[in-house]
């Protein structure tokens, strides 16, 4: 560890707490609308909780994916400068905001400004994540590591752009983020695959 760098072990403990609390608070934004009858029908339950349930599931999975990425990054680069620590804290702040924007969108999913706000929150999380990965990867010149965070960043950029045009369509773009773990596994598998040695007696091309 060079002078001026900070060990990220304590930040890992803080981030686990923040992610855990934020992912729990997602459910606390559920609608509190009262039903007319004592035994609500399925269509009434779907009308009240359908959009919020979908948003809750999306937000939980996205938060889980970024938690995994965060843990991998802390293992990849176990020490950081003060500036990087501040960036990590801003990243965690964007996670703290997720229950708020999730609740707003889940209860007002047709509102244009609310959709833009939720899209912006997801983009902000991806932006901080990609920035931190870039800082860590540049030191090692490990460019393939950036494929996965850049993919999620571009995806949420597109989703925000679409939300500015029509708030009905971003919900079809956000689930594509679920492919991120598969992409990360594919990149890791390609990197760990041993290269085929060329036989010494092989004829020249």
TrEMBL record:
GTP-binding among keywords: no
GO molecular function terms listed in the Swiss-Prot or TrEMBL record: potassium channel activity; proton channel activity
Keywords: Ion channel, Ion transport, Membrane, Potassium, Potassium channel, Potassium transport, Transmembrane, Transmembrane helix, Transport
One term under GO cellular component: membrane
InterPro entries xrefs: TMEM175-like
Domain of life: Bacteria
Topology within the bilayer: Multi-pass membrane protein
Keyword Methyltransferase among record annotations: no
Chemical reaction(s) catalysed: K(+)(in) = K(+)(out)
Chief location: membrane
Pfam family membership, one: TMEM175
Compartment(s) where it occurs, according to its Swiss-Prot or TrEMBL record: Membrane
Transmembrane segments: 12-28, 48-68, 89-106, 118-138, 145-165
Assigned protein family: Belongs to the TMEM175 family.
Protein name, entry field: DUF1211 domain-containing protein
